[in-house]
Amino acid sequence: MARSRATYEYTEAEDKSMRLGFFLIAAGLLSLLGLGCCWLRPALQERGGGGSANCTVLAVRQLGERFACTFSCGTACRGTARYPCLQVLVRTSRSSAPALLHEDERQLRTNPKCSYIPPCARDDQENSENVTYKQKYWKEKVGSQPFTCYFNQHLRPDDVMLKRTHDETVLLHCFLWPLVTFLVGVLIVVLTICAKSLAVRAEAIKKKKHV
After folding, report:
1. How many beta carbons lie within 10 A of that of residue 161, not counting itself?
2. For this UniProt entry, which segments traverse the membrane (predicted)?
3. How many structural domains are present in the chain?
4. Which of 63-72, 166-175, 202-211 ranks highest by mean pLDDT?
5. Are 174 and 40 within 8 A, CB to CB?
6. Are residues 196 and 124 in the same domain?
7. Per-residue pLDDT tens for 4-26?
């Protein structure tokens, strides 16, 4: 019996392979749970009740109010600058009421009052020039041409986004890579067990032939 049990003991290489497989399985499961709770669930909530529409620019204007932003000029160098508030009002194909356009969900959360946040520069004048350039773009290049925008009636009924932060590709990768990690772990464990089982059977058959 002792000899029979000894044949089923895993070698050091097989033991490492099993540990790697269980580690990948645990990592895949924890990644799915973590991404689901911390990232995927809020992303789906943002997408819930939303959709796409055709937008047309109604008005482009700068408000007198200025907002603060933080610039970085090195590892230990940070400061505060200001930029003017640009508002792009649009009409969607879903509603006749004007809506405020935003770059994406992140910009909407950062400053829901404005349509554009420029890359923060140390010089306020440079920030103003960036905003003015964006204003000319919406007035002259886009004008009355329709374009695709996105909305969410449940979360922000009076705002629309130019692009989505959480698109289908991002959501796919959120599920895909943890799932691949989990399946690779399962495959390693199954192959190690099968290889050991075949080796034990081959050894048993070999012993029977020599008897």
Report:
1. 23
2. 20-40, 170-193
3. 2
4. 63-72
5. yes
6. no
7. 444 567 788 888 888 898 999 89
DSSP notation for 47-110: HTTEEEEEEEEEEEEEEEEEEEEEEEEETTEEEEEEEEEEEEEEEESS-SSEEEEESSHHHHHH
Residue 40 and residue 147: Cα distance in Å, rounded? Answer: 28
Residue 186 located in a structural domain: yes
What is the distance between the alpha carbons of residues 173 and 210, in angstroms, rounded to a whole number?
Answer: 55
- Joined together, the tokens standing for residue 5 give 């049990």
Q: How far apart are CA 191 and CA 198, in angstroms?
A: 10
- Rounded distance between C-alpha atoms, residue 83 and residue 89, angstroms: 19
Position 59 in a domain: yes
With a cut of 70, say whether residue 141 has pLDDT above it.
yes
Pairwise CA distance, residues 73 & 176, whole Å? 38
DSSP state of 1: -
Residue 69 lies in a domain: yes
Residue 201 lies in a domain: yes
**How large is the average pLDDT for residues 170-182?**
76
